[in-house]
Amino acid sequence: MAEMKEISPNAPAGAKLLNWVDNRFPLSKLYNEHLGEYYAPKNFNFFYIFGSLSLLVLVIQIVTGIFLVMHYKPDAALAFGSVEYIMRDVPWGWLIRYMHSTGASAFFIVVYLHMFRGLIYGSYRKPRELVWLFGCGIFLCLMAEAFMGYLLPWGQMSYWGAQVIVNLFAAVPFVGPDLALLIRGDYVVGDATLNRFFSFHVIAVPLVLLGLVAAHIIALHEVGSNNPDGVEIKATKGADGHPLDGIPFHPYYTVHDIFAVSMFLMVFTAIIFFAPEFGGYFLEYNNFIPADPLKTPLHIAPVWYFTPYYSMLRAITSEMVLVLIACVVGAAAVSVFKIKMPAVFKIVIVGAAAVVTAMLLSIDAKFWGVVIMGGAVVILFFLPWLDNCAVKSIRYRPNWHKYLYGIFVVNFVVLAYLGVQPPSAIGERVSQVGTLFYFGFFLLMPWWSQMGQTKAVPNRVTFAAH
Fold first, then answer.
1. By the 8 A CB rule, do 454 and 390 touch?
2. Which whole number is the average pLDDT over 360-366?
3. Which of 6, 276, 289, 350 meets the CB 3.0–4.6 Å disulfide criterion with 98?
4. What confidence tens digit (pLDDT) does each residue in 334-347 have?
5. How large is the average pLDDT for residues 281-298?
6. CA–CA distances in Å: residue 238 to residues 20, 180, 215, 345, 373
């Protein structure tokens, strides 16, 4: 048992109360470790606001979700009507609903920007691999949470979007039909599906999400924050033991984040009050029509934040499978003939390529579309071990790396746009090229990340006071 701290009898009442709490719960210790005495690099820039904004949007989603659950009915016959009741009859219900729906899109915007910052500044590199893995876990949970929440309004796009996505699991060899039946809880998307998704959306996934967020923050504060220079500030400490290039998170970055929060809330509230549907991207117009199993919408597409992966799913056709076979055979040939390795390894590579080729030919393209769609997210988990560049930050990498990252972002946006559009021959070809580039960017990273001449990284962070 820890020794109880004594305090002067003449101390103020607030100090006595804090001491009483500290002797029973490490309140001051937690405050010091994560705010008051947590030293962050002093050269943070604009991109370092999105972590705090992600936390803010998470709180908004939880609070608004609690109020929505008070009036929502997870029943296929009543769900759509309960949402309309919230919008029309519950005092301020329209505001809560629009905050929640806009918050879903805002969450993905800030998380995508947060991940992009990690990508360009090498925030996934040693010693922050675990921070990145927890972050990718958060992203995966966020996608599951958003998909399940998308079904709950029980509109046309909710129903048919769920129908399409759940039916994809039926493409899994051997266990597919049973897996789809387990997810749906019935032979069609219906009341059982709605209840399952509701329970996961409200209870199961948020619990996992909160645990991962806590683990993400704890891991970050254990190893310290990265910075735009990719310099470890703990390597240069002053006589007091604090990093010379660091400043306490509070009050310096709390003020920094409060300013960012105020700017974000201005945009957020403007969208809520003036354009909550955001042209059909945040709330699709078809979703204001009750779910009708007998009437299929002309074009079924997920919400914008899923569309890059949906494009990759649609890109995998029988022709594309042949291209994938060519990529596998080509990669195996290069490995065997260009890389020095024992003969046993070469035999294993050739055998593995033959097995993969046989699987690609024998299993339906629809299944490989599901694999590609899932692999596009899973591959992010391996990023810390794919990047072999000598430096972390894009600032000190070869200049052509910047253009490559720029093309990657443009490619991702194009895939997102194509996912919203109805299928077309040109769109299919572009999405196939975009899918190959997306995976090529990561799978070839061990080679291209080492190419080119890196710039000298300074020993201390580069910073100009403003």
1. yes
2. 84
3. 276
4. 888 777 778 787 78
5. 89
6. 34, 59, 29, 51, 49
Distance CA 438, CA 103 (A): 27
Number of H helices, E strands in the chain: 19, 2
Residue scoring higher pLDDT (7 or 213): 213
Count, residues in the chain: 466
Q: Is 247 helix (H, G, I), strand (E, B) or coil?
A: strand
My answer on whether omega of the bond before 9 falls inside 30° of 0, hence cis, is: no
Give me 251's structure tokens: 């009050």
Kindly list the distances between the CA atom of residue 83 and the CA atoms of 76, 382, 388, in Å, as whole numbers in the listed order: 12, 40, 50
Residues with Cβ within 8 Å of residue 18, at least 6 apart in sequence: 27, 28
Q: pLDDT by residue (tens digit) across 91-124?
A: 999 999 999 999 999 999 999 999 999 999 999 9
Q: Which amino acid is at 87?
A: M
- Please determine, for residue 385, whether its predicted confidence score (pLDDT) is greater than 70: yes
Per-residue pLDDT reduced to its tens digit, 146-164: 999 999 999 999 999 888 8
- Whether pLDDT at 198 is above 80: yes
Place of tokens 């975009």: 434
| CA-based nearest residue to 144, from 165, 125, 160 | 165
User: Residues 421, 425, 426, 431: what is their CA dihedral angle, to the nearest 10 degrees?
Assistant: 70
pLDDT at 466 over 70: no
Q: What pLDDT score does 277 carry?
A: 93
Instruction: Give, in order, the Cα–Cα distances in Å from 82 to each of 102, 289, 428, 436.
Output: 19, 13, 39, 44
Q: How far is the C-alpha of 348 from the C-alpha of 360, rounded, in Å?
A: 18
Structure-token match 């042949």, residue found: 322
Whether this prediction's pTM lies above 0.90 is answered by yes
Residue 275: C-alpha distances to residues 267, 268, 405 (Å): 11, 10, 32
Neighbours of 281 (CB within 10 A): 14
Spell out the alpha helix ranges (H) of 122-274. 129-151, 156-168, 176-184, 191-199, 205-223, 254-274
State how far the alpha carbon of 120 is from the alpha carbons of 125, 150, 204, 380, 391, in Å.
11, 31, 33, 14, 11
Residue 4 has pLDDT above 80, yes or no: no
Distance CA 119, CA 117 (A): 5
Are the C-beta atoms of residues 389 and 452 closer than 8 Å to each other? Answer: no
Which two tokens mark 254?
């709390």
